[in-house]
Design goal:
This protein is mainly alpha-helical and 374 residues long. The chain has one domain (5-373). The protein contains 15 helices and no strands. It has helices at residues 5-27, 35-41, 44-66, 70-94, 96-103, 111-123, 125-134, 157-176, 180-198, 211-233, 238-250, 254-270, 279-298, 301-323, 328-373. Helix 1 (5-27) packs parallel to helix 14 (301-323) and helix 3 crosses helix 8 (157-176).
C-alpha cells in the first residue's frame, strides 16, 4: 500500500497533539500558559477524531488496492494492532503504582476520576484484564461496567474502536460501493444509529469508544478515499461530494473538518490530481516538503500514542517516590525531559515490535490468500 506523505505526517501531528495534551494534564499547565492555548492543547479528542478519519481513509485504500479476502485482511490487521497494544498494556499494568504516584499530585487534571478508576482496576482486575485482551473493551458502556474502556491504559479506548472498525469495514464498503441510492440510504442508517446511541438508550460511554459513536468520522475518511478514486478514474459523482459535505457540515467538529480538508488537499496535490496554479495549492505543495520530514515519525504514531503515559508514569512517578514530594515546576521539567524519551522509545518499539509483527502478519495473510485462491 502506498504510504501517503500527507497521511503519515498528519498521524505524527495528531499523536503529538495527544501527547502534549496529556503532558498538560499531568503538569497542570493551565497555571502556566494562557487559557486559550491550554484549552486547544488539551483538546486531544480533536486529534483522535482526525485519527479516526485517517483510519477510514487508509483502511479503505488498503481494501480497495489489495483485493484481499476477509480472513487474510483481518489477520494482517490483527498483527498490525495487537502486538504493540499488548506490549504497552502490560507495560502500563507493570507501572500502575508509578502512574498513581505521578498523576495524583494536586495540580494534575482529573485526580478524583483517576482515583476512582484505580479503585475499579484493583477491585475488578480480572474482568478489566479479560476485556482488554479481546480489545473489545470499548464496546461496554460505563453504565454497565464503570471504566471498562479506559482502565490500565486510557488511550487504548480508541484502539478498541479501531478494532471494531476493522471487523466491519468490508461490509460498510460493500454498501457504499453500491448504487447512489443504496450508499446514501446506508449512510443515513448509520447516522440514525449514531443518534440513537448518542441519546443514551443503550447506555453511556465516557469516551466515544463504541463504533456507532464515532461512525461519522470513519465515514468521512471512507468517502474521501472513494472520492479520490473517482477523481483519479475520471468517473466523478457529484452526489458523493454532497454526502461528504453533509457529513462534515452537520456532524464533524469544525476543527476536525478544517484539518482534514487541508490534508486532503495535500493528498490531491501529492497525487497530482489537481494542479498548483492557485496560491493556496502552491503553499500546499511547499508544505509537502516539510511534511515529508515529519512523515517518518508518523509511522511510529501507534507507539507514540500508546507508550507516552507509561513513560510519564515512570519518569514523574519515580521522582515522586524517590523524593517523597516534588514541586509542580519539577514535575513539568520532568515531563519535558520525558518527551525525547517517548520519541526514541516509539522508534524502538516500531522497529522491534511493530515492523517484525507486521511482516509476520503479511506472511500469514499472503499464505491464506494464496490457499483460498488456489
Amino acid at each position: 500500500m502506498r504510504n501517503f506523505t500527507s497521511i503519515e505526517s498528519l498521524r505524527a501531528y495528531m499523536a503529538w497533539w495527544v501527547v502534549i495534551g496529556h503532558a498538560s494534564h499531568l503538569g497542570g499547565w493551565a497555571s502556566y500558559l494562557p487559557k486559550p492555548i491550554v484549552t486547544l492543547v488539551e483538546r486531544g479528542d480533536i486529534a483522535v477524531n482526525v485519527f479516526i478519519i485517517v483510519s477510514g481513509f487508509v483502511i479503505t485504500h488498503l481494501i480497495q488496492t489489495s483485493k484481499e479476502l476477509y480472513a487474510p485482511y483481518l489477520v494482517r490487521r490483527f498483527f498490525r494492532i495487537f502486538p504493540i497494544y499488548l506490549v504497552c498494556l502490560f507495560l502500563a499494568i507493570a507501572v500502575r503504582d508509578l502512574y498513581q504516584a505521578a498523576y495524583f499530585h494536586p495540580w494534575a487534571v482529573g485526580v478524583e476520576m483517576r482515583q476512582l478508576r484505580a479503585e475499579s482496576e484493583a477491585a475488578n482486575f480480572a474482568a478489566h484484564f479479560g476485556l482488554h485482551l479481546t480489545l473489545l473493551h470499548g464496546v461496554i458502556p460505563d453504565t454497565l461496567f464503570k471504566f471498562a474502556s479506559s482502565a490500565f491504559l486510557a488511550p487504548a479506548w480508541s484502539l478498541s474502536l479501531e478494532w471494531q472498525f476493522y471487523l466491519v469495514v468490508p461490509a460498510i464498503l460493500h454498501f457504499l460501493r453500491r448504487s447512489t441510492v443504496v450508499s446514501i440510504a446506508f449512510v443515513l442508517v448509520c447516522l440514525a444509529f449514531h443518534k440513537i446511541v448518542v441519546s443514551g438508550y443503550l447506555g453511556t460511554w465516557s469516551y466515544a469508544s463504541f463504533l456507532p459513536l464515532s461512525i461519522h468520522y470513519f465515514l468521512i475518511g471512507i468517502i474521501s478515499r472513494l472520492i479520490l478514486e473517482e477523481l483519479i478514474a475520471k468517473q466523478f459523482r457529484a452526489e458523493t461530494v454532497i454526502v461528504l459535505s453533509a457529513l462534515i457540515a452537520t456532524i464533524a467538529g469544525p476543527l476536525e473538518a478544517v484539518i482534514w480538508s487541508v490534508f486532503f488537499t495535500f493528498i490531491l496535490v501529492e497525487l497530482e490530481v489537481v494542479g498548483i496554479e492557485s496560491p493556496f495549492l502552491r503553499m500546499a505543495s511547499t508544505l509537502l516538503v516539510f511534511n515529508s520530514k515529519v512523515a517518518r515519525t508518523g509511522s511510529w504514531s501507534y507507539s507514540t500514542y500508546l507508550v507516552h503515559i507509561p513513560v510519564f508514569s515512570v519518569v514523574v512517578g519515580s521522582a515522586t517516590v524517590l523524593s517523597a514530594n516534588i514541586s509542580q515546576l519539577m514535575a513539568s521539567l520532568l515531563i519535558l525531559v520525558s518527551l525525547p524519551v517517548v520519541l526514541l522509545l516509539s522508534k524502538a518499539m516500531f522497529s522491534f515490535v511493530e515492523q517484525p509483527f507486521n511482516k509476520i502478519g503479511r506472511q500469514f495473510a499472503n499464505k491464506m490468500q494464496a490457499r483460498r485462491i488456489a
